[in-house]
Amino acid sequence: MSYWTHGTGFNLSWRLSIMVQFIPALLLCAGLPFVPESPRWLIDKGRLERAKQSLQLIRGSDSVDEVQQELDEIRENTEYHHVNSISSWRVLFTNSDLFARLWRVALLQFMAQMCGSTAMKYYLPTNFIALGLGKEMSLLASGIESSLKVGCTGIEMMLIDRAGRKTTLVLGSAIMAVALLINGALPLAYPHNINHVSDYACVVFIFFFSFGYSIGFGPNSWVYGAEIFPTHVRAKGLCISASAGSVGSIIVAQFWPIAMQNIKSRTYFIFMITNLAAIVLILAFFPETKGKTLEELDNLFRKKSSKVNSDS
């Protein structure tokens, strides 16, 4: 829409940009009545029979026996959190089990911005112009890049439950690191746009960067956080974690134009390093959550916090 600057586009482009957002919203509203209620919420409200039916529907099972064990685990977990429910925000910092989850999700949100995605999003037309594209072409390329992210996120939806959260996070970070390396190195080897092939290669690898982000940090930073927090503190935990992402976004947004002005394409190397560091952190500290229930995750992080306490 930003590319549509001629004729009626000046008056219609921004209106259509807003109108298009109604399409997924309407589809969501139309589909919500057909989504079963969460078994956990139904048990929390004392509607055990409805919870049993909902769990059978989600698991695709006609037999009550096949879901009974999971139903009992959910009920026990819900009763435990009822007895030990704490409404204070401080519990996320004072409870070792919850803090083990909080710092991981907050770090994930922070890394999702420090990987360079904020700079690519905010300054993409400027980055394209620096690579020799004209103003209109840079706007068009930026629009294509944003559109492709939607399709790439669809690919991630198919990958995330097959390959796992850690694998897609590491793969996405590796792809972004390579793309940033290319965008940092080629302009140094061929400065002042003296080699158009080099410039076009950088443009292509910016699209690779977007692909890496869309199968890695883009969706995973939200999926992972929503999975590991217990229901009674999930909203608070995600709120604090999202704030860490906002801090990262502010840092990158302020740092990028100053760095590009002073050290030029070497700026890309800085964010390449953050992606490589992210790979190490993910492999070392982030457990896989694929296929695990909240009860299994409770046990997992309880063991991790117990191990840390025993080591200290």
Quick tags:
312 residues, 15 helices, 80% helix, globular, mainly alpha, disordered C terminus
Question: Summed up, what is this model?
Answer:
With 312 residues, the protein is an all-alpha fold.
Structure overview:
Helix 11 runs parallel beside helix 12 (217-228) and helix 12 packs antiparallel against helix 13 (234-263). The chain is globular. It is an all-alpha fold and 312 residues long. Mean pLDDT is 87; it is low at 308-312. It has helices spanning 9-20, 22-31, 39-44, 48-59, 64-83, 91-94, 96-114, 117-130, 135-163, 165-189, 196-215, 217-228, 234-263, 267-285, 294-311. It is built from 15 helices and no strands.
The rounded Rg comes to 23 Å
What average pLDDT do the residues reach?
A: 87
Q: From the helix content, strand content and strand pairing, which structural class follows? A: mainly alpha
Could you give the distance between the termini? 56 Å
Unreliable parts: 308-312
- Give the ordered list of helices and strands: HHHHHHHHHHHHHHH
Major sheet, described briefly? none
Helix content percent band: over 70%
Question: Based on DSSP secondary structure assignment, what is the total number of beta strands?
Answer: 0
User: Quick one: overall form?
Assistant: globular
Count of discrete alpha- or pi-helical segments spanning 4 or more residues: 15
Strand proportion, as a percent range, falls in under 5%
